[in-house]
Write a structure and sequence with these properties.
alpha+beta; 3 domains; 8-stranded mixed beta sheet; elongated
């Protein structure tokens, strides 16, 4: 099949909104649909169909196809454009009509889909089609219009929780960003080479539109760049774990019959780590000093220590990390996703880490709300099976991860004060977790 150069243009809008795309003619129309959505900047939130000049139509077989519609997954682009153009309609309510015109052909094949050029941003979704878009532009351009402020805010809000809110610019077109999104869709082996398995699984569960937005979010996380952790800050962060590893070294620590740290060790930890300023009581039992219990549990779950014949002992990983704060911090970062339970818990953890890696303000309530929206887009719902998960429910899924970050002094929590530069460190830790977890 030839390599086709296709000009995609949105009908009835001037100045024109268009893209010039190189695409292999052997691709089915279902993949052309994805290419159009990404190239134009739509969110794939509505129905669509392709139409040949002779009236033949193709659409997604997942929909209830009309009697005159054919399966878009079985028709190749080169065969469908034998008249050198196709009509593509998106959102049958707003009726965004596109002309796909073949303007060039070349021998050979090309695996990638690449946008060579283009102009202007696609209209905001659900703005009322071409007439509504024209009215919206007039309102945005007139500060004296009665609903100028409201419509400006509406047009600035993103459909997805991961996209940065910014004023809508009808002239905006970012060629590099569009091609990055296309690589995420059509060259996943390249785009996700630095992604950990937990992140890959989550991305595969998103709809194409949400996947595009999330891919942009991950672009801000710079997962392809090396992680840059500062040794001095690392030492400040891992201090509780380093203390425990030093205390367990050599002969280990004899646990109580209930498997807890003995009173003398709890008291030592309280004095050494300053827990007495935050907790009251005798400070010599785990149930009176929650940080001591959490520290032991997290050190065990992250494979730094293990329980053997009633004693807490260093593992090989704990021995290797004991004298090197950088090794210890990297070890904890790589195991963050494993603190959450599989399924919704692990996906909630990945959503949280993606926000932190992208530089979102590490505020608990805001992050929990964002995680809840992300879980809803992945198909999770509240107990009524219809409503989105609650922010409190979403936080419950990531509470262990948040708590460990609090123990490290990286987010606001009751375990300890945040270390200087905590926002930079938590971002690097989250990036490492997404690369390795």
């Amino acid at each position: 099949m030839p390599l086709l150069q296709v000009r995609i243009s949105l009908d009835d809008i001037e100045p024109a909104i268009w893209r010039l795309v190189d695409i292999d003619g052997s691709r089915p129309l279902a993949e052309v649909h994805d290419a159009v959505q990404i190239a134009m900047g739509w969110t794939d939130s509505h129905l669509h169909a392709f139409e040949h000049p002779d009236g033949r139509r193709w659409s997604d077989p997942g929909f209830d196809l009309e009697t005159d519609e054919e399966d878009e997954t079985t028709m190749m682009l080169a065969e469908a454009v034998d008249a050198d153009w196709l009509r593509y309609e998106y959102d049958f309510g707003d009726s965004w009509s596109h002309r796909l015109e073949v303007v060039g052909r070349a021998d050979g094949e090309q695996a990638a889909v690449v946008v060579r050029d283009g102009a202007r941003s696609a209209p905001p979704e659900d703005c009322g089609g071409v007439p509504g878009y024209d009215e919206l532009l007039e309102t945005l351009a007139d500060p004296t219009a009665e609903d100028h402020d409201a419509m400006t805010a509406w047009a600035s809000r993103s459909r997805w929780p991961w996209q940065e809110e910014a004023p809508f610019d009808p002239e905006a077109f970012d060629l590099d960003a569009v091609n990055r999104r296309l690589r995420q869709r059509f060259e996943p082996e390249t785009a996700i080479a630095v992604w950990g398995s937990s992140l890959q699984q989550l991305v595969e569960g998103l709809t194409p539109g949400a996947r595009t937005a999330f891919g942009d979010h991950l672009g801000r996380a710079r997962l392809e760049d090396p992680v840059d952790l500062d040794a001095a800050r690392a030492a400040a962060c891992v201090r509780p774990f380093a203390w425990l590893l030093d205390r367990v070294a050599d002969e280990g620590v004899r646990l109580t019959s209930a498997g807890r740290l003995p009173p003398a060790v709890v008291r030592e930890a309280s004095d050494a780590l300053g827990w007495g300023a935050r907790w009251i009581g005798t400070m010599n039992r785990e149930d009176h000093v929650p940080p001591a219990a959490h520290l032991r549990e997290w050190a065990t779950r992250t494979t730094l220590v293990r329980k053997y014949k009633g004693r807490l002992l260093l593992t090989r990983a704990g021995t290797a990390a004991r004298r090197d704060p950088m090794v210890l911090l990297r070890h904890l970062a790589e195991r963050l996703p494993r603190l959450a339970s599989k399924g919704a818990g692990q996906e909630a953890c990945v959503l949280l880490l993606a926000d932190l890696a992208a530089g979102v303000e590490p505020a608990r309530d805001e992050l929990a709300a964002r995680v809840a929206v992300g879980l809803h887009l992945l198909g999770y719902a509240a107990q009524d099976r219809w409503s989105p998960p609650s922010a409190s429910g979403a936080f419950g899924l990531v509470s262990e991860v948040w708590g460990l970050l609090g123990m490290l002094g990286l987010v606001e929590d009751h375990f300890r004060d945040q270390v200087p530069g905590s926002r930079d460190v938590v971002r690097e830790m989250a990036r490492l977790a997404l690369q390795e977890g």
